[in-house]
């Protein structure tokens, strides 16, 4: 009885504070948008209808205000002067590769076991872990709920971030992470693999069978979740990722881009050759030819496209492949 009364008082106080607080406006006024307090009240109704505990919602949103910094970050234009090789050498620097080799040695038995279970190259599990959070050393300091609520309220991409926000509330509601540890990068990615809440929902794995899909503290869950993501998105173990190639001087650049897929033998017939002089792989493998800014032409295969589902950037996918090769001492 006392607990029920206390919970009711807590929820009542939350409503009183919210109703009498000053509305918080973001940088750009939007006349059709409700005040922050009314928006939270509406959000609360939907959250409770989805099964979120009222005490949890009220404690999470008590005193919460939007983070104006995120609006600037969300509107920031991507850097266009950065070249592929500069990007790769910055994010795949010698120190990150050295750490990757050390962490792979430390967890090799577990990572190899998980890689075999999911038919995924373990070197790529380590590489993704490394590029996303520096092997768990830096997972971000933004509060995930505040970030997602701010971006959902802003409405530029409201529907997307609102869905992510509800996924995040369910993660908390089910106890997979506590609020103080639920931090990440500015757009809501968190944990060792920097999963958005929807990616956690679709791909996170409770590998150690403790009842929680813990990508924040449990290494076995982290590695299995990365492997599961790759497997579910079509990873083909044993196939190449990308090969740096030379193109003939008279090559028709109409064929450059992800829209064009050809068997390797057709690319060879068009004069494409491996930059290092090696033979290209089996002629029936399907590949596309891309040209990242400031980098070599790349003949990219299925697994490269799988990495693009994680991050739709040629620079990113190429750098993950570079890190994986270096960690595993490949050429």
Spell out the blueprint of helices and strands.
Elements: H1 2-20, H2 36-49, H3 54-61, H4 68-75, H5 84-91, H6 94-118, H7 122-133, E1 142-143, H8 144-154, H9 158-173, E2 183-184, H10 197-203, H11 219-232, E3 242-246, E4 262-263, H12 264-269, E5 273-274, E6 286-290, E7 297-300, H13 302-310, H14 314-327
Antiparallel strand pairs: 1-2, 3-5, 3-7, 4-6, 6-7
Helix pairs in contact: 1-3, 2-3, 4-8, 5-14, 6-7, 6-11, 7-11, 7-14, 8-9, 10-11, 13-14
Structure report:
This protein has helices at residues 2-20, 36-49, 54-61, 68-75, 84-91, 94-118, 122-133, 144-154, 158-173, 197-203, 219-232, 264-269, 302-310, 314-327, and strands spanning 142-143, 183-184, 242-246, 262-263, 273-274, 286-290, 297-300. The model is unreliable at 3-10 and 14-30 (pLDDT under 50). The strands form two sheets. The chain has a five-stranded antiparallel beta sheet with strand order 4-6-7-3-5. The chain has a two-stranded antiparallel ribbon with strand order 1-2. By secondary structure, the chain is α+β, with helices and mostly antiparallel strands. The protein has a domain at 2-75 and 140-203: Bacterial muramidase (Helicase, Ruva Protein, domain 3, Orthogonal Bundle). Helix 7 packs across helix 14 (314-327).
